[in-house]
Specification:
The chain has about 170 residues and is an all-alpha fold. The chain is about 75% helix and about 0% strand. The chain has five helices and no strands. Helix 1 packs antiparallel against helix 5 and helix 3 runs antiparallel to helix 5.
């Protein structure tokens, strides 16, 4: 297959994944806001709370962090210092940016591998109040890493095929 064709297929896939991540994150944050607010009311008004809400909040925050973190790479909205890179010639700037994407890919591959191992360990542990296996919170690590890998591959293939990686992101 030609790089351009693979790049377009991957772009379609990553676009759908990014939309799904955004939607899931929004729903989780909305539910989390209501539950945490109700927990505050229960604790301070009625002097009792539901322990499962705290556990749900921990699980939810992990998912939002890793899904949201992968979205940062999807949108290429990472904080970066570009003063040196922008002073390079266009060809060298492109090479340096591709090296960054390769380093990010390597990091996310390690995160995926060790995240899977960590999630498997979570099968043996449970949250105290709800009894939910910690696997469900730890699973957010390899899922976020996998999505980040796909987003970085998308950017690399677009750069390799000479297409703009992201109009709002890096060049």
């Amino acid at each position: 297959m030609h790089v351009l064709h693979v790049s377009r297929m991957l772009q379609g896939l990553t676009s759908r994944i990014a939309s799904l991540c955004r939607m899931i994150s929004i729903v989780i944050m909305a539910v989390l806001s209501v539950l945490v607010f109700s927990q505050v009311i229960l604790r301070f008004v009625f002097s009792s709370g539901a322990a499962w809400i705290e556990e749900f909040a921990m699980i939810s925050m992990m998912w939002v962090a890793f899904l949201g973190g992968s979205l940062v790479f999807a949108d290429q909205s990472c904080i970066s210092v570009t003063i040196l890179i922008e002073r390079l010639q266009e060809k060298n700037e492109r090479i340096v940016r591709m090296i960054f994407h390769i380093f990010a890919l390597v990091f996310f591959c390690f995160l995926l591998i060790y995240g899977v191992q960590f999630a498997i360990l979570g099968l043996k542990m449970k949250f105290g109040a709800s009894g939910i296996p910690k696997f469900w919170s730890y699973l957010s690590i390899p899922v976020g890493a996998l999505f980040s890998i796909l987003f970085e591959l998308d950017h690399l293939l677009r750069k390799a095929s000479g297409r703009q990686a992201n109009p709002g992101g890096d060049k």
